[in-house]
Amino acid sequence: MIQPIEAVWRDEWGRLLALLVAQTRRLDLAEDALADAFERAARTWPEAGTPDNPPAWLLTAARRRVLDRLRAEAVAARKQPLLAVEEQGGERADDVLRLVLLAAHPSLSEEAGAALTLRLVLGISTADIARLFLVPEPTMAARLTRARKKVVAAGVPLAIPDDDVLPQRLETVARVAYLAFTAGYAPGSGADVVRADLAGEAIRLVRLVRGTGRAAAGNAALAALLALMLLQHARRDARVDADGGLVLLPAQDRSGWHRSEIDEGLMLLAELTGTRGAAVDSALAAEYVLQALIAAEHARAARAQETDWLAIADYYRQLEDLTGSPVVRLNRAVAVAEAGDLGNALGLLDGLDEALPHSHRLPAVRAELLSRAGRHTEAAAAYDVALERCENEPEHAQLRARRSALRLT
Amino acid sequence: MTKYLVLLAGLENEWNDAEPADRERWHQDHVTFGREVGSAILGGEALDGIDTATTVRRRSGTVELTDGPYAEAAEQLGGFYLLEAPDLDQVVKWCALLPEIYSIEIRPCIQIEGLTD
Fold first, then answer.
1. Residue A382 burial (CB < 10 Å; 0-12/13-18/19+)?
2. In a domain, B88, yes or no
3. Which of B60, B89, B57 is nearest to B71 (CA)?
């Protein structure tokens, strides 16, 4: 059961912080004060009981803390830089969107923007963000400090930009959210295969942003991204076996997929690709739509053997035309092979070595395709290259098993 | 309000070697910029080439001069504006009016106590 304080934290952190930042114009102070208020709540609510209006209680506690700190600073006579904030009266419906656009500002690197957005908008702890991005906590703390300082010093405003700039800025938010999502699924160098819970926070972020108003709700890139993430994230439980090992797509128990999330993703996708749907007029949205269409094909197949690989191969071809990405071409080759055309699949791998010199997936895929073509000696050599490059323990074990299954003369 | 130094970097001689029509277009971009930004421009100049630059360094009591800019780079500083703006988004919006030949670096200025404005 979710404790009340955690529910309030999930629902209210971003809104409360947006409000405090707008009022104090001090990012560091507002964030510390709100974290402090939640800590105090965790100490006092279990005994004194949850207050009638938890957000109001937290806001009051945080404001008190802000005042204490400001008084202390006044005594020390230190003047702190203030955030650029538009003139305003009270709370506004789009306060949270302002905070999102500040944290996911294009003047920050996407990595820094992703970390800052998770921290400021969702209130995720520095330790958890560090775990998500597979860096030590002090490294992440330093990255966040640098990002906060840049935002304040460079004069990134807490404001909604003009209509001609807003769609582009919302796409930056999408990029940042997707970066956080994929970080959660990137294999680490250890045995920690899935940080899926944290990846799921990217879905929460996009839902929250889409709920801030018409511009965000109608943004095709955000809608397509939500569909894509829902379709992929729905498979999280089936990706891991009882021992914590990685289970690849064909071997997954599909009854373990979250059906309601798949249905929601398919519905969003239908709205985007349907005739009366919003026009997919941006390259980024088109990219997310194609990736979502691929995930949807997997989601629709009741069994792995029923997957429509011809359709998937064609989506990958379109995606390659759009992005020119060598990783997309590699995935396309896999799809073409699954559709039964080994010769063309191997041909698609030609020339990729230069673009992906450190990838273990490229030689692993080549080895698999060669072995299916009965060219076992060449396959063994390719597995050796893949094993040399692979640092992820579960994947290394799978590659070793596949290599030893080859019939070598 | 914050003061921002807007540094215009580009390929050396790109302006001089360009077709007259391009030069005229870029010149007009600066005119438009000047009109739009107006009194928020506190200053600005176009700089002569890096072959006219002198770099001064104080090293253990002596003043050392070197011929050329402080850093060798493909793109070099060709001019600057000093602006006053409420925030970074405003500066970025204004910078979109400038010629596309530049890499534009936007740097907020900090106030230093004891130095008169």
1. buried
2. yes
3. B57
Closest-CA residue of chain A to B107 = A154
Residues 6+ apart with CB under 8 A from A213: A93, A94, A97
Instruction: List the single residue in A with minimal CA-CA distance to B92.
Output: A107
Residue extents of the structural domains in chain A? 1-82, 93-195
- Find the helix or strand (DSSP H, E) in which B63 lies: strand B62-67
Task: Count residue pairs from A and B with Cβ separation < 8 A.
Answer: 34
Does a structural domain hold residue B95? yes
Number of independent structural domains in chain B = 1
Distances (CA, A) of A23 to A62, A73, A82: 12, 17, 11
Q: Give B 76-115 residues with CB within 8 A of chain A.
A: 85-93, 106, 108, 110
- Chain B, nearest residue to A107 by Cα: B88
- Tens-level pLDDT at each residue, chain A (409 residues): 457 888 999 889 999 999 999 988 899 999 999 999 999 999 999 999 899 999 999 999 999 999 999 998 888 777 777 888 776 666 676 889 999 999 999 999 999 999 999 999 999 999 999 989 989 999 999 999 999 999 999 999 999 999 999 999 999 999 999 999 999 887 665 545 547 888 999 999 999 999 999 999 999 999 999 999 999 999 998 988 888 777 888 899 999 999 999 999 999 999 999 855 455 779 999 999 999 999 999 999 999 999 999 999 999 999 999 999 999 999 999 999 999 999 999 999 998 999 999 999 999 999 999 999 999 999 999 999 999 999 888 788 889 999 998 887 6
Q: What is the largest CA-CA distance in chain B?
A: 50
DSSP string computed for B3-30? EEEEEEEEETTHHHHS-HHHHHHHHHHH
Does some domain include residue B48?
yes
What's the CATH number where B20 sits? Answer: 3.30.70.1060
A166: contact with B, CB 8 A cutoff: no
- Output the furthest CA–CA distance in chain A (Å, rounded): 83
Question: A84 CB near a chain B CB, below 8 Å?
Answer: yes
Cβ contacts (< 8 Å) between B89 and chain A: which residues?
A: 156-157, 159, 161, 165
Q: Over the Cα atoms of chain A, what is R_g?
A: 24
> Cβ separation of A155 and B93 shorter than 8 Å?
no
CB A174 within 8 A of CB A206: yes
- Quick check: is B115 in a domain? no
- Tell me which residue range forms the domain holding B61: 2-108
A154 close to B (CB below 8 A): yes
Q: Contacts of residue A156 in chain B, CB cutoff 8 Å?
A: 87-89
Long-range pairs for A20-23 at CB < 8 Å and ≥24 separation? A20/A59, A20/A62, A20/A63, A20/A66, A21/A83, A21/A85, A21/A99, A21/A158, A22/A85, A22/A88, A22/A95, A22/A98, A22/A158, A23/A63
Phi, psi of A225 (to 5 degrees): -65, -40
Quote ipTM for the complex.
0.85
